[in-house]
Amino acid sequence: MESTIKLSEVTKVVPTNKPYESQYGTLHGYYITFANGDNGKYNSKSEQQDKFMLGEQVNYEISGKEYNGKMFYNIKPSNPDFEGSTTPSESAPASLPATPAAKAFGTKPTTHTAKDELIVRQTALKASAEIGGKDLATILDNAERMVNWVLSKKPETSGATHAEHFSGREKAAVVEKVADDGLPF
User: Would residue 172 count as lying in a domain?
Assistant: First the structure.
């Protein structure tokens, strides 16, 4: 079974008999039941888990494995804002238009979380600053163009043109010093 992100209320939390050792250290098992009927095992590193509390509405990821003809389900907490996933109420349409970046690099179209957009904005600002410009407004304008291009927000309608970006720059004069032996070093 493929893992699925869901949102539901916790209705039951039952600890297992004893902790066990794994490659991740000592784990404490809990059987979690949700109002929507899902249930499965959650492994916590802490003895008193605080991710699935009775009566709380939580986002969780559920995945199952078949063993000897029976399905066993694992539960883990999920934060859709930071994992590139969406809650069922915010799920994206089945076919999204490809962004310019997706077309350019041959990747599949995706939805963008707040964290994704923040990373794109920071990266675009850094790239724009490295490219430079005649003033701060031009650098910020170019950064916004980059963000719009990556996130496909009509890049053709914003930002400085190529000529505007490079106007006002002074070109450094290239002066070659030639040694007595004719070599430039």
Answer: no
Query: Using CA atoms in the order 21, 23, 24, 25, what is the torsion angle rounded to 10 degrees?
Result: 30
Determine the pLDDT at residue 95: 37
Residue 170 DSSP one-character state: P
Among left, alpha and beta (phi > 0; psi -120 to 50; other), residue 103 is alpha
178 within domain boundaries: no
Express each pLDDT in 114-144 by its tens digit: 788 889 889 988 998 888 777 888 888 888 8
Amino acid at 2: E
Task: Establish if 177 belongs to a structural domain.
Answer: no
Structure tokens at 64: 């199952």
Calculate the alpha carbon distances from 133 to 130, 166, 169 in Å: 9, 6, 7
pTM of structure: 0.44
Residue ranges of the alpha helices (H) in 45-173?
80-83, 100-105, 114-131, 136-151, 162-166
Residue-wise pLDDT tens digits, 149-170: 888 765 454 455 666 656 666 6
Separation between Cα atoms, residue 63 and residue 8, nearest integer Å: 15
> What pLDDT is recorded for position 115?
83
Across-strand partners of 185?
none
Residue 37 pLDDT > 50: yes
Q: In this structure, are residues 51 and 44 in contact, taking their beta carbons and an 8 Å threshold?
A: yes
Domain, as residue range, for 9:
4-80
